[in-house]
Amino acid sequence: MCGGIHVRVRAEQVRAKTTRRFLLETAARLFDERGYAGTSISDISARSGRTSGAIYFHYASKENLALAIVEEHFATWPALIDRYRATGHPALERLVALSFEVARAFRDDVIIRAGSRLWSERRAIDAALPRPFVGWLETVAELLTEARAEGDLAPGVRPQVAAYGLVCAFFGLHTVSDALEGRRQIEEELHDLWGLLLPALQKDPDPAALLTRVCGRSGGSCCGEPANGARAMFS
Question: How far, in Å, CA of 214 to CA of 52, rounded?
């Protein structure tokens, strides 16, 4: 008898978890498409096929749903960063490879996209959202410090200062790419950006070789033609 109860409870927990995830992803798609103010619980109900009461059972409010999406957005990064920290490749190459992985996540993962949009609309959300960028600044500065220890960083480059500029450039690229073409060419555009930045970072500048190594290890997925025909910068 006890075993049967345990099985039923476990099954109900699994169903509840599945439902919460389904509602979260449905809300994320709407927030990504319409923004926070343009999305209502009724909209989420219509898109998901679940009643508003069912949604409120799992998420007490629209603010609670938005907060859950933003928190999951931020929770994605530590494991991803740790994976790139653990490889035996040079730090500067790990930094570039990580940037392409993050770019693909922003393009392809609806939770990541929605979390980013919701944070940009944070003043409309009555909830305390996590602070952005701090973790990225620390990660990039750490990788640049490692690159200096490995002898790959150009003289005069200060990791903390350079990290701030790189994070601004990276997320600025995402903002422009999203506005102009929905990030469809984000990998090619990031390829171009690194072509501009690496000569200032590398002790012995050779951005084309570094990018070829990084893209080769990812199966060539970031090695398409540079956007806007910008071949000359890699020659």
Answer: 47
What does 82-132 look like in DSSP terms, one character per residue? HHHHTSSS-HHHHHHHHHHHHHHHHHH-HHHHHHHHHHHTGGGS-S-PPPP
Tell the residue number behind the tokens 């990225």, with chain if given.
136
Summarize pLDDT for 147-185 with one digit per residue, the tens.
999 999 999 999 999 999 999 999 999 999 999 999 999
pLDDT in tens, 102-160: 999 999 999 999 999 999 999 999 888 888 899 999 999 999 999 999 999 999 999 99
Contact of 230 with 192, CB cutoff 8 Å: yes
CA angle 64, 35, 134 (to 5 degrees): 70
d(CA 92, CA 143): 7
CA angle 215–170–114, rounded 5-degree value: 100
Q: What sign does the dihedral 56-60-63-65 (CA atoms) show?
A: negative
Structure tokens at 173: 């690229």
Q: How far apart are CA 24 and CA 185, in angstroms?
A: 27
Q: What is the rounded average pLDDT of the residues 17-29?
A: 94
